[in-house]
Amino acid sequence: MKLFDRSPGENARNYAIRVLLYNIINLELAPGSAVSENELSSTLNLSRTPVREALIELSKSSLVEILPQRGSYISKIDYERIEEARFMRLVLENAVVKLACESPEPVDLKKLKDNISEQKFCLEQEDTARFFPLDNEFHMLLFQSVNKARTFEVIQSQMVHFDRIRTLSLKSSKPTKIVEDHENIIYAIERRDTELAEILMTRHINRHQLEKSELVAAFPDYFIH
Hints:
single chain, mainly alpha, 3-stranded antiparallel beta sheet, 11 helices
């Protein structure tokens, strides 16, 4: 499990949530695996109370399953939840590229292009751990480019289940196609081609569906069947 320093002013409960959430999304805590309050308390150097509170909070998002008399477990990946997150993200991200293409003034895409350059560097270095936050940053910058940063924050709060499948996909293969998707989306926005931008974004957001059978076959214990 990957650990972090506590942020200034961060209480024990929020620290535990932040560390556990990172490790769940990045599959350091594997779907279906048992988690012990005592072991987590020792690892995080916290008392059991904030750890217990963190597990309860994460159970509200269905990332942790707490079974009376049996213990706590990291929830398995549920494709129904992924599909719901995909639907919301697809609707909003297509709306954003439409805004970018139809903006009265051309959208400043320099930060997005710089982000893509960093993504390519990560591919060269085979640094998938760094690539994942860069992928998130690309979409965040896209929302910011049309003054919809708060909308992206709403998406992020609902993406935890979707993010686990993205992590699994990154661990299974090189994310070359993802970078190509990002480059093509920027190309369409620069041309102000709304139809093409929406087609490309739809293909990008739906890409995980093409990998579903492969991922389930490779990691059967990770999924709800």
